[in-house]
Amino acid sequence: MCYGNDRPPTRDDLFEAPPPQENEDRVMAVENLRDRLAETEARLERARAREAELSCCLDEMKKFVRVMEILESYLRRQYAEQQDRLARLYSSSSSSSSLLVGVSA
Questions:
Q1: How many CB atoms are closer than 10 A to CB 10?
Q2: Which end of the chain, N or C, is surrounded by fewer C-beta atoms within 10 Å?
Q3: Which of 43, 21, 18, 46 is nearest to 35 (CA)?
Q4: What is the pLDDT of residue 1?
């Protein structure tokens, strides 16, 4: 290794203390990063709470939709049964009225 006219670097050269202003800048940068990290963690916690709240609302809505589907199928079945009853009633009344018309003639 050739260092020219300079002496080889010593341990002190490699780990020389930064000037005081640079040290203050580093401390302020670290504090700034810690503050930003704390804000990010707080936002993340709020987002998780909101996600939990929305998940709960979604589950409630899913239950509501299931109940509505059950009610819809029940009402469709009731409607179809009523239509069948009316069709039988009309068909039986028209056949009995034709019998009455045939008897009176």
A1: 9
A2: N
A3: 43
A4: 52
